[in-house]
Design brief:
Length: 141
C-alpha cells in the first residue's frame, strides 16, 4: 500500500473501519489515543469502508468527517476509498471490519488484528490495548 510505504522508518497502524460497524465505532477512539501518545514515532491511518459502490463516494465525506471530528482524529491520516467495500475486502483478504494492521518500521507487516485472529489467538474480540502492546513492543526493538 502506497500510503504505508510513505511512512518507512515509523511503526504504521492502519485501522479499517466503517461508521455502520458498532465495534469499529467503539474502538476508533483507541486509534486517536494511540496517535496522541506516540506522536511522530507512529503513523496512524484510518481507511473508511463506508462506500458500497452506489452513488458517489464523495457523498459519504460529510458523515464520515462529522464522525472523525467528534472523535478528535486530527492526528490520524484518514482515507476514504473510492472503491466499493466489497473490492477492498477482496484486495485485503478480509471478511469484515474492524481490522487493524500494524507494520514494522522497515515496512514488514507485523500483525493484522481481525475477527479470525481474535477468535484463534485471543479468545475474545481484539481491542486497542492489544494494538498498543504490539506498537510499544515494536518501538522498543
Amino acid at each position: 500500500m502506497k500510503e504505508v510505504a510513505s511512512h518507512l522508518g515509523k511503526v504504521v497502524v492502519l485501522d479499517c473501519w466503517s461508521t455502520s460497524c458498532p465495534p469499529c465505532v467503539k474502538e476508533f477512539p483507541g486509534l486517536v489515543a494511540l496517535a496522541e501518545r506516540h506522536g511522530a514515532r507512529v503513523a496512524c491511518l484510518s481507511l473508511a469502508f463506508d462506500y458500497d459502490g452506489s452513488g458517489d463516494p464523495e457523498d459519504l465525506v460529510p458523515p464520515i468527517q462529522r464522525f472523525l471530528e467528534k472523535t478528535g482524529a486530527g492526528r490520524v491520516t484518514n482515507l476514504l476509498s473510492s472503491e466499493p467495500a466489497d473490492s477492498l475486502y477482496h484486495q485485503l483478504d478480509l471478511t469484515s471490519v474492524p481490522a487493524v494492521y500494524v507494520w514494522k518500521p522497515n515496512g514488514e507487516r507485523a500483525i493484522r488484528y481481525d475477527d479470525d485472529l481474535a477468535a484463534r489467538e485471543l479468545g475474545r474480540p481484539f481491542t486497542y490495548e492489544d494494538v498498543e502492546k504490539t506498537v510499544v513492543g515494536l518501538l522498543a526493538e
